[in-house]
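Q: Give me the 3D complex with KG4.
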Amino acid sequence: MEAHALTVRLTSAVDFPFLALLISGGHCLLALARGVSDFLLLGQSLDIAPGDMLDKVARRLSLMNHPECSAMSGGEALEHLAKQGNKLSFDLKPPMQRAKNCDFSFSGLQHVVDKLVMQKEKEEGREQGQLLSAAADIAAAVQHTVACHLARRTHRAILFCRQRDLLPQKDAVVVASGGVASNLYIRKALGVVMNATECTLLCPPPSLCTDNGIMIAWNGIERLRAGLGVLHETEGIRYEPKCPLGVDISRDVAEAAIKIPRLKMEI
Ligand code: KG4
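A: Here is the predicted complex, encoded as structure tokens.
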């Protein structure tokens, strides 16, 4: 996750502090990067990651049987199909609307979509595995709902960081990275928040932010340059399978309960 957050500095001159939104098949978090090894965790997914959810929805819609989508990942297939659909066909509610924090949730939405697909299969007289004529509308509605959820949490994170003087009041940088950040619709939704808050959105090129080898190597270079955590002896090192990212201040964020202004998500 640290490597994910820092990869942007491989291609752009981004100074600390900046806000990082990491959205992939396995992770979903908002963190403030204050230094190479200095992070504040503002919020994370309480269940599954957005990419995992999009992959499950795509599988449920059998998009691998769609001639235009068979070679795509679930998220890519939904983005592609959503262009042909109407996002207003189904009224899916963004998750956790009442919780004024920066945490995320995707499994509830996934179950709602599962039920919707089942209902459409009945209506259209299709078996599981057959393509639905409503698939593009479902893809558009799901993508829109996920984009709004990510955008609203990011909006709150910016306001929280500014309230605490953790980010500059103007021209702050927000970095979106991970496989899901390559979704152009999601980037546009984040763009609406950037306009409203006068922030700049940066997204490392997908070729970099999906290559763990490059990301970890860059993380090593950053640490070497900063003289942080680079050991010259391997003797006595203890390995841990999981390492939390920075200091978790998600409780402070929830306690601040910042109300975010409604933005028109006209994308
Ligand atoms: O960061 P990543 O390559 O790797 C891991 O999570 O391991 O992310 C992969 C995830 C998959 O769930 C995939 O469906 C999603 O990113 N993804 C997308 C798009 N391209 C890949 N999700 C939404 N829109 C896309 N265009």
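A quick observation: The pocket of KG4 is lined by residues 24-26, 51, 54-55, 73-76, 79, 178-180, 182-183, 210 (CB under 6 Å).
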